[in-house]
Write a structure and sequence with these properties.
mainly beta, 3-stranded antiparallel beta sheet, SH3 type barrels, N-terminal domain of TfIIb
Length: 113
């Protein structure tokens, strides 16, 4: 059995092993996966405040007044933000807001429009 074991898609551990039924398992994070499935390694799953999945290019609405460092006025509730871009990290939405410019937002303060 010289089958090449691919790294775990969840934690990238090199110690995955075959379960014998076509599935593989990771001893570090207990993830099980089918190596024959195509997995998009760049897939970033970001959820809004209501649990809806966000995608690049979506429009969102601000659900809480957000103070902006260096600006005398906050971003108000109900402000619509178009054409968002998702990224990894704490502030996982990269966007441009009219009147404020480029901004990074947390997905927990927006809902899908």
């Amino acid at each position: 059995m010289s089958e090449e074991i691919k790294p775990c898609p969840q934690c990238n551990s090199q110690y995955g092993y075959s379960l014998g039924n076509g599935m593989h398992a990771c001893p570090e994070c207990s993830n099980e996966w089918n190596p024959n499935e195509i997995v998009d390694g760049n897939a970033l799953k970001v959820l809004d405040s209501n649990g809806n999945e966000l995608k690049d290019g979506d429009s969102v609405t601000i659900i809480k007044s957000l103070p902006v460092k260096g600006s005398p006025k906050p971003i108000k509730i109900g402000t619509k933000v178009k054409n968002i871009r998702l990224k990894a990290g704490d502030h996982n939405i990269d966007c441009r807001i009219d009147g404020y410019g480029a901004m990074e937002l947390k997905s927990e303060f927006v809902k899908k429009a």
